[in-house]
Design brief:
single chain; 143 residues; alpha+beta; 43% helix
């Protein structure tokens, strides 16, 4: 990746729906050059897809939580597989420190969120969990 690819990704992170002609104007390149670069980035797996970010009112109604997991090493694969099947689990990260993993959860209700958290905590191999409900988001960048 060169400087232009990095700029292209930065613009797409801010607005993945930007038109090709607008994108070419921002980058100072022809439409065909921008399209070729995007295609190459997609083929190389650098761009894996395009997504939708919810508006503030919709996002504010979601209940989100971060669940820290302390896991017995032999249970890691089972925990990952279980979390992958849970619609409320939107991301699962391995981390350093006291805990082994961090799960990011989203739900429409506290009851549904609580049910998922309880199910994770009851998994064989999960020694301990610590949950933090997210109260507000000051800012969030697209990944």
């Amino acid at each position: 990746m060169d400087k232009i690819d990095t700029q292209l990704l930065h613009v797409l992170r801010d607005n993945a729906r930007i038109s090709l002609s607008s994108l070419s104007r921002v980058l100072g390149l022809s439409r065909s050059t921008v399209q070729d670069r995007m295609t190459k980035l997609e083929r190389r797996g650098i761009i894996a897809g395009y997504t939708v970010r919810l508006g503030q009112d919709v996002a504010a109604r979601e209940i989100r939580a971060q669940v820290m997991l302390k896991i017995v090493p032999k249970a890691l694969d089972e925990v990952v597989a279980f979390c992958r099947r849970q619609p409320a689990v939107v991301a699962l990260h391995t981390i350093s420190g006291e805990f082994d993993m961090a799960a990011m959860l989203r739900s429409d209700t506290t009851a549904a969120l609580d049910e998922t958290i309880d199910a994770i905590g009851l998994l064989k191999g999960v020694e301990r969990t610590q949950t933090s409900v997210i109260l507000s988001t000051k800012f969030e960048r697209a990944s």
